[in-house]
Design a protein that fits this description.
single chain; mainly alpha; about 70% helix; rod-shaped
């Protein structure tokens, strides 16, 4: 079902499908956006929790 064997880095970035279309740029941009959103959210809430902890003490 999934073929993770790429011959080069270029193939991994381009991700050509069986019908000849390249969809790698869309996949990698979504992965980048999701990871960036998670990291930003994590740091924002980490800072908020630290500030609430300071107010409690």
């Amino acid at each position: 079902m999934f073929n993770f064997a790429f011959d080069s880095i270029g193939e991994a970035f381009m991700m050509q499908s069986a019908n000849g279309q390249y969809h790698g740029i869309y996949v990698w941009s979504v992965v980048f956006i999701v990871l960036t959103s998670l990291l930003v959210t994590f740091f924002i809430y980490k800072r908020k929790i630290r500030n609430i902890g300071k107010k409690i003490k």
